Fold this protein.
Amino acid sequence: MRGQVAISMSHSYPIALDVMSGDHGASVIMPAALRALQEMDDIHLLLVGDEAVVAAHMRHWPESVRPRAQVIHASQTVAMEELPAVALRNKRDSSMRKSIDLVKEGSASACVSAGNTGALMATARYVLKTLAGIDRPAIATALPSLFGHTHMLDLGANVDVEAAHLYQFAVMGSVLVTAIDGLETPRVGLLNIGSEAIKGNDRVREAAHLLEGSSLNYIGFVEGNDVYCSDVDVVVCDGFVGNVALKTSEGVARMIADNIRTEFKRSWITRLRGLVALPVLNRFRNRIDPRRYNGASLLGLQGIVIKSHGGADEVAFQNAIRIARKEAEANVPQRIDKQLGRMLRQEVEV
Amino acid sequence: MRGQVAISMSHSYPIALDVMSGDHGASVIMPAALRALQEMDDIHLLLVGDEAVVAAHMRHWPESVRPRAQVIHASQTVAMEELPAVALRNKRDSSMRKSIDLVKEGSASACVSAGNTGALMATARYVLKTLAGIDRPAIATALPSLFGHTHMLDLGANVDVEAAHLYQFAVMGSVLVTAIDGLETPRVGLLNIGSEAIKGNDRVREAAHLLEGSSLNYIGFVEGNDVYCSDVDVVVCDGFVGNVALKTSEGVARMIADNIRTEFKRSWITRLRGLVALPVLNRFRNRIDPRRYNGASLLGLQGIVIKSHGGADEVAFQNAIRIARKEAEANVPQRIDKQLGRMLRQEVEV
């Protein structure tokens, strides 16, 4: 199997897809895989899951993409509510585990899973290990903002962190943005509850101190609204705060969308008005479409793991594959490793 | 002065307004005061600030409302960026301090300030003291939701809390909702990053344990999106998380509004479409207008203190006065005191 994959490695990015996980499994992920193959001709997909299921889907695929797709059989699936420790112990032949194994052994340059975050993080950490200098991996994602987009981490991998971890998150986030957005010195902000230096808790203040002394482009404290309304590139916070901020954002957006819909449905007159406004509202919706932002990076590992939203549809999952390809092309883990090494040396020199 | 005020106390709710604070001071707060007097004929306003400034505004007021307004001179103002400890020590004749003093001495049944949160909380705590059984006051506000509205606390008064504090916040929030919304047993949720019992940090899990054993209508963990999309009445969290969630929400709403505006301004065709949609979009905007939610309660004190947004306009500040009146009518501090006493007794009996 390895040899087969290796042939194409020099020409394309082999990406392992955990086909069985997520709320919809293969029925969404296989069509997303096809879309991705048609869109990106330099990727090669390793479709990890039940051989029969995957093959059934592939039967309808055009001949042209087949050479860049390969089935890797996995007999188990990690359930969405499965405890990380249980998944790690009992699901060694799961589509999730095997996808990560492919990254570990070098057959895949990245993997994508819509499976349960806890199990994915635990398995990835166990199989791939963290980079030297990283105590804890973090989850990062891009979010739409008035200035394009903002990357935020951690989004839930670490609920109790120390200042040194926030510092590591900042380094990883900065490298990620340089690698995939091409920004030389991304603006890094530390999420706090006031822009004045006096506010916040000890942990955040200590992390600010560490960042001020670093070579990162640290711009100081930012507040929740800055994630969406300031030209900060990386927002750093602990996983509890980041997860609440992310989910709260989803809630506000949903409430607003529902309210707009309700108002336009109020009567036949408002329905007509809605019909007139529709093309504009659609353009707007497309602009902040969460599917365009689907795909969170598990950073700090010796390999690329992308987590898709469990409920992702084809368009959304396709985007997660796009991110995996981008990170593979940019060699994100190696870059983080290098940057960390450089910063540690600098600190020693100082 | 006290005698004068006392005359009207049986007939109306005397509310002290810190006229000088906030981004706009008297120029916004005095017109808001007039609106409030015209709207609510059972309030009596104590306008605390520079006598000359307040009098100049009142000169244009209709005769009919004058008997329900009274100027209380204060020679100082607390600046928006002033440190709480400095304000507390050096601004004993500030409009903020005197407004709170009026509540303490019983001349006002509530006070409203748009001044800096830290100074307001520190002064209120120093002057009014906390209720027995409350270690730390918290800041609560209502937020729009698909189910009407949700109350959330703490929003920034306490950055480092223990489980017992979260428990106290839950009691205070529950009493607040019963008092002002008339709900017998408000549904109380604990903000966490997963609805499963295994997720979150130790502090949250311990608080959940305390709440499960209480007489509150505790519904379990809720996530960020539930604040806006679930029928939970009270969402409890620490002040760091609550503040980030609140500010993030503001950011998302602003980004969405800006994006909608941009799309409608794209060309003359989209402008026309916008014109047609405007009445509906205005209705929608009115529905989630943040001004309708302006006015946060400092809970856990022996007196009612309402914090208005610093940048509040007349409509927004008027709403903060409305909340002050509502809490005065409902006797919120006494109710919290009673409920806490009852719960402590129950715990002893158990």
Remarks:
- Chain A touches chain B through 61 residues (CB under 8 Å).
- The longest helix of chain A spans residues 239-264.
- The domain at 135-290 of chain A is CATH 3.40.718.10 (Isopropylmalate Dehydrogenase).
